[in-house]
Amino acid sequence: MCRLAAYLGPAITLQQFLLDPPHSLYRQSWEPQELKYAKLNADGYGFGWYGPDDLPAIHTSALPIWSDSNLPHLARTLRQPLWLAEVRSATPGNPVHQYNTAPFLDARLLYVHNGFIREFHQQVLPHITAMLDPGIVADIYGNTDSEYLFACLRQLLADDPELTLPAALAGLFELLSDWIDEQPALMNIVITDGQRLYATRHGLNHECPSLYYTTDDELFPGGQIIASERLTGDSFWQPVPEHHLLILDPENPPELLAL
């Protein structure tokens, strides 16, 4: 289990997004309020953004977020209109390593996952590896369910160039429902193409992890936020309904689709 957050709007510093909020992702690393199955998120952290070339970029570390002496300098100086971040709580079978730390990326997408799939390596991984093209397999560096789910999603998109991200996410969940039998799967995912944020609050054979969003928080004027836990006490934060996909677009109001 992990805690995640994403921002879309006018450019802000990484500090304003990751460190400054009263219940920031930084604070959630040692004081989460709605975390299931863990008490800390001390097994690494990462954040992602898009560069001047419009390609995704990431910074990840296997250290607890509070132990990275470079972060205050990065946070003070980096400014972007889109941020994606996660603090990690590793699950058994997925060791603490930089390669296992989100966000994950390809040439177009940034991706984070809050959740787990029980018996993933025994029950689900063989199905995923059987469907992956060699080029996608070559881009997998860690062993987490999160990264392999991203690879599966990338494969679905590669197989059908007309497939939208919402349709690909729905297809991923359909495959999982066939593969996991009665095992629990917690599937809060945030993915972005650099233009929009897509977030799912979903679980199979289990209640869904927490997920919230706001478009009106005074700490982020003109911005839209998604987070595992509310970053501030502002009353405008709303829970994403269980088993729904949320789409945040800078030009349109939030859209919720049932999964």
Describe this structure in words.
By secondary structure, this protein is of the alpha+beta class. It has a single domain, classed as Glutamine Phosphoribosylpyrophosphate, subunit 1, domain 1. The chain is built from seven helices and 15 strands. Strands 3-2-4-1-12-11-13 form a seven-stranded antiparallel β-sheet. Strand 2 and strand 3 form a beta hairpin. Helix 6 crosses helix 7. The longest helix has 15 residues. The protein is globular. The two termini are 21 Å apart.
Describe what is shown at a glance.
It is built from 7 helices and 15 strands. The chain has 259 residues and is an alpha+beta fold.
Order of helices and strands: EHHEEHEEEHHHHEEEEEEEEE
What is the CATH C level class, in words?
Answer: Alpha Beta
Strand residue content: 25-35%
| Mean residue pLDDT | 95
Number of strands: 15
The DSSP helix count reads 7
Shape: globular
Total domain units: 1
Backbone structural class: alpha+beta
Name given to the CATH homologous superfamily? Aminohydrolase, N-terminal nucleophile (Ntn) domain
Across the major sheet, the strand order is 3-2-4-1-12-11-13
Any idea what the radius of gyration is?
Answer: 17 Å
Percent range for helical residues? 10-25%
Give the termini distance in whole angstroms.
21 Å
The CATH architecture: 4-Layer Sandwich
